[in-house]
């Protein structure tokens, strides 16, 4: 069985903070720059011209390496920049005084962590890496001239914010109404669609950026419940999970079990690639 390649290892270019990002089997071209990763994500919402893609590429001038569980921002902290995940994963969370944590948002490569509003400098959220990560730091002020001069980019950013809100609503429904089995199946479907949108899937495989403990914090379940339910999904022939490598064995059945309707993600291009590649069993299992 082939193993899923890890996210691209960042390789700084001389005099820049650019790096190449590998794409999965849904890719249509060779390596891209970090800003190209953002353009690829936004291009799912709006057709961007070469000039608009270059403008987004120019936004990414600095990046930094983080280890797991390092904070990108803290609630009530001051920040004049937005983080763009280039490699790895992070999450937005709230923590109660007694130490219990709720993961509110999962960030993967291509995701902007925070709003692009130039005048916003007081954070109302805590964001921490889940894995080792490469993160670009973009000053909020850098978005102002782009939003004014490039209306399609502004529209794509607005679409991106709308999709984030849709994901938040779906997570509320997940925790409030779905069973544990349905919650995990739904998150796996959502995550696969999002990773496919930025070329980080290989066939029906992807890298799961969450541990079982983190899944518990995201889904409002105990770690024991997560473990038992993942085993049930395996037994039902829907998934194979080996370490962090997730293979979806029957995408249609997994979506049915989760009552998953991906319209809220507005990732039409990614959805078409998934539909074209969906199969009952993975060929080399």
From TrEMBL:
Record keywords: DNA-binding, Transcription, Transcription regulation
PROSITE patterns, alphabetized: HTH_CRP_2
Keyword Signal: no
Region annotation (Disordered) ranges: 1-36
Domain HTH crp-type: 178-252
Coiled-coil annotated residue ranges, if any: none
One of the Pfam families matching this protein, by short name: HTH_Crp_2
Transmembrane segments annotated in the record for this chain: none
Keyword check for Acetylation: no
Protein name: Transcriptional regulator
Species annotation: Methylobacterium oxalidis
Lineage: Bacteria, Pseudomonadati, Pseudomonadota, Alphaproteobacteria, Hyphomicrobiales
């Amino acid at each position: 069985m082939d193993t899923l390649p890890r996210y691209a290892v960042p390789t700084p270019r001389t005099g820049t903070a650019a790096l190449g990002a590998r794409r999965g089997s849904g890719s249509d071209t060779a390596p891209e720059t970090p800003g190209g990763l953002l353009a690829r994500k936004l291009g799912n919402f709006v057709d961007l011209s070469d000039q608009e893609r270059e403008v987004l590429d120019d936004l990414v001038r600095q990046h930094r390496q983080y280890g797991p569980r390092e904070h990108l921002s803290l609630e009530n902290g001051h920040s004049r920049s937005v983080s763009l995940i280039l490699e790895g994963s992070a999450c937005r969370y709230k923590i109660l005084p007694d130490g219990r944590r709720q993961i509110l948002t999962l960030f993967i490569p291509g995701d902007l962590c925070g709003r692009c509003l130039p005048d916003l400098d007081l954070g109302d959220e805590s964001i921490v890496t889940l894995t080792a990560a490469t993160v670009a730091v973009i000053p909020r002020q850098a978005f102002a001239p782009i939003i004014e001069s490039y209306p399609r980019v502004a529209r794509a950013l607005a679409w991106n914010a709308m999709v984030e809100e849709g994901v938040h609503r779906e997570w509320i429904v997940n925790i409030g109404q779905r069973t544990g089995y349905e919650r995990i199946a739904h998150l796996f479907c959502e995550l696969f669609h999002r990773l496919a949108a930025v070329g980080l899937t290989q066939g029906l495989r992807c890298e799961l950026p969450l541990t079982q403990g983190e899944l518990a914090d995201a889904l409002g379940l105990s770690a024991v419940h997560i473990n038992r339910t993942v085993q049930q999904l395996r037994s039902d022939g829907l998934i194979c999970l080996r370490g962090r490598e997730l293979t979806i064995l029957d995408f249609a059945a997994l979506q049915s079990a989760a009552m998953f309707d991906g319209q809220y993600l507005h990732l039409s291009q990614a959805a078409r690639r998934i539909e074209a590649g969906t199969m009952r069993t993975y060929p080399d299992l």
